[in-house]
């Protein structure tokens, strides 16, 4: 296991400001849980990035995020079209 920086004994959080709780091994040393190594679920990404290194769960999360973004964009397009139609109606 990898070692973490010294922890603040009061709140048992790593001294580096991370919000992850410290786990201690049998020797009392700070260690990192492998679950903490994973990227956060809300990680930003760019269209066109390589996908081969992503897990199925990460790919599924990306699809959900992109579907939500597409819906948001379509809503904005519809609002702008309504606004443009209303403006065009004034000048007829």
Give structural attributes.
92 residues, mainly alpha, two-stranded antiparallel ribbon, 4 strands, 38% helix, elongated
- Sequence of secondary-structure elements: EEEEH
Largest sheet: 2 strands, antiparallel
SS content category: mainly alpha
Into which percent range does the helicity of residues fall? 25-40%
Number of domains: 2
Number of helices: 1
**Ends distance:** 72 Å
Major sheet: arrangement of strands: 1-2
Query: What is the residue-mean pLDDT, rounded to a whole number?
Result: 79
Tell me the number of strands.
4
Question: Please, could you describe this protein's structure?
Answer:
The termini are far apart. The protein contains 1 helix and 4 strands, in the order E-E-E-E-H. With 92 residues, it is mainly alpha-helical. The chain has one helix at 56-90, and strands at 7-8, 13-14, 23-24, 30-31. Strand 3 (23-24) and strand 4 (30-31) form a beta hairpin. The chain has a two-stranded antiparallel sheet with strand order 1-2. Strands 3-4 form a two-stranded antiparallel ribbon. Helices cover 38% and strands 9% of the residues. The protein folds into 2 domains: 7-37, no CATH class; 40-92. It is elongated, with a radius of gyration of 23 Å.
List the helices and strands and how they pair.
Layout: E1 7-8, E2 13-14, E3 23-24, E4 30-31, H1 56-90
Antiparallel strand pairs: 1-2, 3-4
A few lines on this structure:
The protein is mainly alpha-helical. It has one helix spanning 56-90, and strands at 7-8, 13-14, 23-24, 30-31.
């Amino acid at each position: 296991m990898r070692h973490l920086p010294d922890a603040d004994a009061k709140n048992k959080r790593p001294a580096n400001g991370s919000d992850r709780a410290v786990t201690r091994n049998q020797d009392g040393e700070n260690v990192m849980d492998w679950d903490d190594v994973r990227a956060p679920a809300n990680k930003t990404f760019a269209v066109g990035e390589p996908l081969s290194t992503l897990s199925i769960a990460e790919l599924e999360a990306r699809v959900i995020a992109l579907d939500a973004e597409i819906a948001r964009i379509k809503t904005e397009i519809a609002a702008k079209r309504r606004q443009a139609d209303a403006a065009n109606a004034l000048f007829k």
